[in-house]
Design brief:
Distance between the termini: 61 Å
Largest sheet: 7 strands, parallel
Structural class: alpha/beta
Strand content: 15-25%
Mean pLDDT: 90
Number of strands: 7
Helix content: 40-55%
Radius of gyration: 18 Å
Number of helices: 7
Low-confidence stretches: none
Length: 205
Amino acid sequence: MIGYLLGAAGLGLALWLGDGVRRIGAVSSGDPVGQRSGTALLLIDLQTVFWDDGPYSGAAKDEARSAILDEVAAARAAGQPIIALRQEWSIPSTRCLARLTMKGRAIAGTPGTEIAEPFAGIADPVLVKPVQDGFQSGELDRLLARLDVGKLRIVGLDLNYCVLKTALAARNRGYEVTIPLRATLAAHSTDGARKRLAAHSVRFQ
């Protein structure tokens, strides 16, 4: 009996964590954007915990910082909105996975989830996302609709994860998406991510 209960508990835990893995990596769909004239710049996960303490070299960060700030300057000159998305793991299963596999980084309420110093004060507004896909909560959908945005330029990190999933979710809704590659960071090879993005008609610069 005890063995049966332990087995059932183990299975339940595995299913619960599996649901967390699915939530983290899922790409959402939404209503088609239709004809919108505006362009917005999205800054993805440029947070202290990732920028200062992440697996990126100083040289890579220097290049990305320069390219991101160039994108910011261009957006400001064109009068385009600049929106930042911050990662905070807040769903119970994803919080657990973050503790188990991500050294507890970016769990809601922990230090380092704020925008990193080189980019602080640039974006307005700053939205919080609970998973990799920045559209999952619906808040970004509503904001972009109010701003009449139909084109997105996406910068930040990591190209293999949150940049990828947010860009794919944007394409699922019909946004035109451009990724300036110099303005992104990735800890590992981006060949697979770039193929997925290209297959969904994401443009690279």
